[in-house]
Amino acid sequence: QLQLQESGPGLVKPLETLSLTCTVSGGSISSSDYYWGWIRQPPGKGLEWIGTIYYSGSTYYNPSLKSRVTIFVDMSKNQFSLKLSSVTAADTAVYYCARHLVTIFGVLTRLNWFDPWGQGTLVTVSS
Amino acid sequence: QSALTQPASVSGSPGQSITISCTGTSSDVGGYNYVSWYQQHPGKAPKLMIYDVNNRPSGVSNRFSGSKSGNTASLTISGLQAEDEAVYYCSSYTSSTTLVFGGGTKLTVL
User: Fold this and answer.
1) Residue A20: is its pLDDT beyond 80?
2) Does pLDDT of A41 surpass 90?
3) With 80 as the cut, is the pLDDT of residue B1 above it?
4) Mean pLDDT computed over every residue of chain B
5) Quick check: bond before A63 cis, omega within 30?
6) Closest-CA residue of chain B to A61
């Protein structure tokens, strides 16, 4: 059974870089069928897609966060990671990682559903 | 990209059916059959309930069904049960090669 687990600091200072890692167990991150994604949820608010990566390193990012986001894969550890720079209080959220189905039709890419999800980790931005 | 539009709340009594709408544009919901629905209980991670508009993952009750007409997708829950009380989110692929979520709908089982 595939499981994902987020890890990283729960408190980050304003203007610093938020760094989180998602460890995948029960399956390989280098599976050719799936991508891997990050989603966040500010307290009491809705879900926001952050970005998605394939094991080869191909990435897709939310345009509203793209200038501050980097997602990368470490196949040797079966992990993928998120870095979000220059954080502010608005970046305070529960951050989830999830397996992401991305459908490819030749040169066309279709971002689809997330399943399963990690349990999420709360990151607070505060001095 | 703008979030998809969902009603803030819906309610129903046990045994009844409810429908949650998710309205987008021709650049997302209306243009592609890549609409998904997620259920989130308080303090828990979202759970995939419907994918590709009207498909249920293994293990999801057949009381949950999805549909789409034009730019609006819908999630219907029949035979409401107390355990269905949760927040439901829709999501869709967009023509900008991004993914957008709805604002969420809180379902109350009376």
Assistant:
1) yes
2) yes
3) no
4) 96
5) no
6) B98
- Mean pLDDT computed over A60-89: 97
Round to whole Å and give the CA distance between A2 and B93: 24
The Cα of A90 is separated from the nearest Cα of chain B by a number of Å equal to 17
Structure tokens at B81: 């049960």
Give one DSSP letter per residue of A50-92, joined into a string.
EEEE-TTS-EEE-TTTTTTEEEEEEGGGTEEEEEE-S--GGG-
Residues in A closer than 8 angstroms to B45, CB to CB, are 96, 117-120
Query: How many residues in total does chain A contain?
Result: 127
Mean pLDDT of A96-113: 91
C-beta of residue A61 within 8 angstroms of C-beta of residue A39 = no
Identity at B79, one-letter amino acid code = G
